[in-house]
Amino acid sequence: MTAPLDKFANQLDWNLLRTFMVIVQERSITLAAHRLSVTQPSVSAALRRLEERLERRLIERGGAAAFQPTPAGEVLYRHCADIYGVVTALPSALDAAHAEVQGIVTLHLSGHIHWPELPGLIAAYRQDYPLVRFRFRRGTCDEILGQLAQKNAVLGVVSAHDARPVLVQRKLFDQEMSHYVRAPAPADDPRAAPVLGYEGEQAGSPLAALSMHRIRAGLEGPTVAEAPDCMALAALVRAGAGIGALPRRLAAADASLAELPLAPLVLPVYLVRHEQGGLSPADQSFLQYLEAH
After folding, report:
1. Which of helix, strand or coil describes residue 33?
2. How confident is the model at residue 4 (pLDDT cuts 50, 70, 90)?
3. Euclidean distance between CA atoms 125 and 101, whole angstroms
4. Can you give the residue ranges of the HTH lysR-type domain (predicted)?
5. Dist CA 190 CA 244 (whole Å)
6. What average pLDDT does the segment 88-97 reach?
């Protein structure tokens, strides 16, 4: 059940208080209307509504004391001034809160993930939180999820929707992976060419989907190297070491790479954290920024 005072606060139009405060300061409906950039009837109606809501006369209307506050009006004016002071101080208080947030946000990213928007997001975020620094750690999806589950990591970016209830997951985007060779593409059949994989592609892991995708595409050559991340794998492909799966948004603009005519594999990318992961103020502010953008 709503308490009477809560009901009063919820039903009160707070703009009426500002109008009343200006009337007291200007000692005139006309001047108050000019200052508020509204019509005189609007100001008169606002005063009448406030008096009806409070069930008290707040402003004297006639005689020598015209437009002077009544005793009840004096009390209300003092409270209005206090409220106005709190509201006008909010921007400075919020700026101070931003300035006080500091620390290090550590992002654990699975090696195959390419998130080209991340640098811009961090740069924009640091406009508001200049004291926050960032660290990046690469690993396999399994390693990162294990660290998160054990609270040895706070924020992870992986391609796996983990079933553990202690992990909170939010999808960021879909990443298309295609297979590439050193340009120009070979004229002969590439299906027996050496394969370049990622660490953590073993059966049962989130990246096992890449191995299965190669098998379905008929790429049956031996795996000759396992790279820790997509940048290292791209360097191997450019060197002509074999065929490798790369994020299309990473490889598309690289003229030294040739995409094989195979259907791409779509891997969802998630931001993952522990539901009781002990987020620092820096972690919390960055999460809120990501959710807003």
Report:
1. helix
2. low
3. 12
4. 12-70
5. 12
6. 70
pLDDT, tens digit, for every residue of 207-264?
888 889 988 888 888 999 999 999 999 999 999 999 999 999 999 889 999 999 889 9
pTM of the model: 0.65
- Residue ranges and CATH numbers for the domains of the chain are 4-97 (1.10.10.10), 103-172+270-292 (3.40.190.10), 174-267 (3.40.190.10)
Q: What is the 3-state secondary structure (H, E, C) of 69-97?
A: ECHHHHHHHHHHHHHHHHHHHHHHHHHHH
Lookup: tokens for 187: 């004229």
CA 148 vs. chain centroid, Å, equals: 20
pLDDT recorded at residue 259: 93
Q: Flag whether pLDDT at 287 surpasses 50.
A: yes
Q: Could you give the residue ranges of the DSSP H alpha helices within 60-194?
A: 71-100, 118-128, 141-149
Distance CA 168, CA 233 (A): 30
- The token duo for 135 is 């660290």
Q: Report the run of H or E that residue 234 belongs to, with start and end.
A: helix 230-238
Residue 21 tokens read as 């405060």
Query: Quick one: which H or E segment has residue 110?
Result: strand 103-110
